[in-house]
Design goal:
By secondary structure, this protein is of the alpha/beta class. 35% of the residues lie in helices and 20% in strands. The chain has 17 helices and 22 strands.
């Protein structure tokens, strides 16, 4: 029996999670996520898959986040007709998340095509449409934690609570390999490992003694202080109090699923105890509103009731969202996307970033090249929808809401899985985070030869047999996955040039500078 795995995403970066497993009896995927971050990385979403979609027999999903599920409709559109296995909460969330993703693809492309028409450039098409996403939903199949599931002939899987998100899972896979001793090859895919301290989630769990371990390393290079619910809420209270006391709005870019609901529960707690002034909270994300209903369905009664606090206002439509531009102070606006790369949050940033009395609070991981990372890095000027915006608002980061385990938590989770007989693959982390976590593992006595850091589209043959696995060519290098690209540099150069021109006192000085720039690039 030949067994191989190709790392088709989240290898050298933190998005696009996708493992392509090939066996003599069939092929299947663990996750099929969308790439996020720089434009160069996002362009991977438009290209061909590094495998044949119609030869995939099944898909196993660790959880609902788009960087783990967002290309499933594209997979179906390309010819995949098999089952998509996930826990019931994951399936419930995807019922809304995938169509919403399709709608965003259509909306973003529609706006881009209007700009392209004015520029004389050709039209582009969305990765997939809302209809494509809706056509995918019938292939979702629910699974229970801890129960073995037949995937394809000779392969079975079992889901364990990963503690990262409602319905999230680490996935154990057993593959019969025809050996005389009858022992299967055992693999464990961590998915995103939770903290055990999040608002809604239990501590992560998983089996021990596997042959191959695939572990995420998003925060493999850092630790966060351990804190109680009250300490976390106090940090949020201070940020909100300071922002509202500054006289402007508080804009919170937030992932629509889980992060928004966690914030709402904590805000309700603070409001109910009189620890915050009675500000209006506007949740401007159709997906967040639907996801909140799903969370309410699966949560304990107290948390479910907190999600419907009277100070929370779900923004019903685009027209109501536009009207929020007229609110210049005293509002808390929570909107997606969490990395500020798409969706309604871009409009709220456009309306508030230039106001010195406003605050933008980043509450999630910002991938390299994302607009959120640009703001986090201290950019003074940015471009949104083609318009240059001066950043006068306060940019703050509150990292206590991360659903990802930090270095110590990841280390403990990994140690609890030992012994690992063959290989530990470090994935889903930028290069610095993976390298740091590798050093930590080695300091714990894990041999260097046992640890592997695969790059995008690398293929590892886990067991050799008569078959020969298909090995795709690498689409991007690891450096490109975890750094700003030329698009980021271009945007920064344009805004820096504009700022420099404004600083010059005379028209003649501005003319001389522009002529020098043009000479340097060979245009005059």
């Amino acid at each position: 029996m030949t067994i191989s795995v190709t790392f088709c995403g989240a290898a050298g970066g933190v998005t696009g999670s996708c493992y392509f497993l090939q066996t003599d009896r069939g092929n299947f995927l663990v996750d099929c996520g969308m790439f996020q971050g720089s434009k160069t990385v996002r362009e991977l979403n438009y290209g061909k898959f590094p495998f044949e979609a119609d030869r995939i027999s099944a898909v196993l999903l660790t959880h609902a986040h788009i960087d783990h599920t967002g290309l499933v409709p594209k997979l179906v559109k390309a010819g995949f007709g098999g089952p998509i296995y996930a826990t019931e909460p994951t399936c419930d969330l995807l019922t809304y998340m995938l169509p919403d993703s399709g709608y965003i693809q259509e909306s973003e492309v529609e706006r881009l095509n209007r700009r392209n028409a004015r520029r004389g450039r050709p039209e582009v098409t969305p990765i997939y449409t809302r209809e494509d996403a809706e056509n995918t939903l019938s292939q979702l199949k629910t699974v229970e934690y801890h129960e073995w599931l037949p995937v394809i002939d000779g392969v079975r899987a079992r889901f364990w609570d990963a503690g990262h998100l409602l319905g999230s899972a680490s996935i154990e896979v057993e593959i019969e390999n025809g050996d005389k001793d009858g022992k299967p090859t055992r693999l464990l895919f961590s998915g995103d490992v939770g903290t055990g301290e999040a608002v809604f989630n239990e501590a992560p769990e998983a089996p021990t003694g596997v042959d191959y371990l695939f572990v995420e390393t998003t925060y493999g290079d850092r630790n966060r202080p351990v804190m109680t619910d009250e300490e976390r809420r106090e940090m949020l209270r201070k940020e909100v109090q300071d922002a509202l006391g500054n006289g402007g709005n508080l804009v919170i870019p937030s992932f629509a699923v889980a992060r928004t609901q966690e914030l709402l529960v904590d805000l309700a707690h603070l409001f109910n105890r009189g620890q915050l002034p009675p500000a209006n909270v506007f949740v401007d994300s159709p997906l967040a509103q639907r996801a909140t209903d799903v969370f309410a369905k699966h949560l304990k009664r107290g948390d479910a009731q907190a999600l419907s606090h009277p100070k929370f206002h779900m923004v019903p439509d685009v027209q109501a969202s536009k009207q929020l531009a007229q609110v210049t102070s005293g509002a808390i606006i929570i909107s997606a996307s969490g990395m500020c790369d798409a969706g309604r949050i871009r409009y709220h940033l456009k309306n508030n970033l230039w106001r010195p009395n406003c605050t933008v609070l980043l509450v999630g991981f910002q991938a390299a090249g994302s607009f959120g990372r640009v703001l986090q890095g201290g950019a003074k000027h940015v471009r949104i929808h083609g318009d240059e915006i001066e950043v006068r608002a306060r940019i703050r980061t509150l990292d206590v809401y991360s659903g990802h385990a930090d270095q110590d938590m990841l280390l403990q989770w990994t140690k609890n899985r030992l012994p690992v007989a063959r290989q530990i693959f470090l994935t889903h982390g930028e290069e610095g985070a993976r390298a740091a976590f590798r050093e930590v593992l080695m300091a714990q006595g894990i041999e260097e030869k046992l640890i592997s850091m695969p790059m995008l589209d690398d293929t590892a043959t886990l067991k050799k047999g008569k078959g020969q696995p298909a090995i795709p060519q690498a689409r991007l290098s690891g450096e490109e996955l975890s750094r700003d690209d030329w698009h980021n540099l271009y945007a920064g150069t344009v805004t820096a040039l504009s700022e420099k021109l404004r600083s010059l006192e005379t028209a003649e000085e501005r003319k001389e500078m522009l002529e020098k720039v043009l000479r340097d690039i060979g245009s005059v």
